[in-house]
Give the backbone structure.
Amino acid sequence: MYSQGLIGAKEDVVEDDAFLEAFQRRIDAEEKIEPNDPMPKAYRNTLIRMIGQHAHSEIVGMLPEGNWITRAPSLRRKVALLAKVQDEGGHGLYLYSAAETLGVSREQMTEELLDGTAKYSSIFNYPTPTWADIGTIGWLVDGAAIMNQVPLCRCSYGPYARAMIRVCKEESFHQRQGYELVQSLCTGTSEQKAMAQDSLNRWWWPSLMMFGPSDTESQHSDQSMKWKIKRFTNDELRQKFVDATVPQAEHLGLSIPDENLVWNSEKNNTQGGYDFGEINWKEFWQVVKGHGMMNRDRIAARKKAWDDGAWVREAAAAFADKQRKTADAA
Ligand code: FAQ
């Protein structure tokens, strides 16, 4: 699927045992792999799939929050929300650029998003009916994103790892401003606190789903861990997120909507951790396969933006072409 027009691709590399072992030795020595380095096709394709999905998630992720920009309750909140949504757009652009170093074009990636071949995070297929959802997204969704993305700063592929450093700094700020928003609601009127609780009830389980299928179901984790693309498994990160977030909810005076949530002092090598209830995997796969509440709207919005922007892309390409011809003639 991603084999055409690879920028730095060493198509002539013979993937024999000697090559694969030498590549693994570089990974084990914590060397960064750079765009023009020889790499196994499967390593390249894994990164294109994962970085592409990540980039699409950032861009699609602008939609649920963008929905509230015109209705933010104060100028201060509107400025913070505008800046956050703009940051997510920026993250998408770094990530598309990181994927492009692997020889895939942004056009190809976008077409694969629009035709359903490429995925984006399940979380952005849930609606944002109340203002409290803006706080909860910052608190939980950015919180989960950070938990997943901080280890990606040590990913073996250089351009992805470097892009993640700035992304994580910005996501940390988003998480704090989201938490501060929820905290204002929790210290406000009883209606405001109820709005925060209702929002937590709706976003808790989808946030846990962001980490992907359980380790026994994950198709790519073993190989991605071996290549040091992923540093932790999906379940390990999910557990870290639960352990970090439950005390935050307690501090806010909110209840996590899970009757099976209980502290287990034996967990995490006896350091302790929370046991929690079973995720609704049926719902997860339905959303991933395109049947969530907002999937159709999200893709329709991205398709409209892509179609409406066609003339800009054509004009930019024509301008670049003209400049090249002028330079050639000189
Ligand atoms: N949603 O074998 P695994 C954000 C798919 S950024 C949809 O475990 P892997 C910022 C997976 O692709 C959020 N699909 O896969 C923000 C695979 O299908 P495929 C995005 C999912 O790659 C905040 C299949 O299931 N972050 O939130 C999901 O080893 C606020 C089997 O799964 C990233 O993308 C899911 N939740 O692990 C923006 C981080 N989970 O591709 C706006 C980078 C799994 O074979 C507002 N990505 N699938 O057809 C990753 O860390 C990994 O790719 C995982 C999945 C952990 C997502």
Q: What stands out?
A: DSSP finds 14 helices and two strands in the chain. The pocket of Phenylacetyl coenzyme A is lined by residues 49-50, 53-54, 57-58, 61, 88, 119, 121-122, 137, 141-142, 145, 148, 209-213, 218-221, 224, 234, 288 (CB under 6 Å). The first strand starts at residue 262 and ends at 264. The two ends are 39 Å apart (CA to CA).
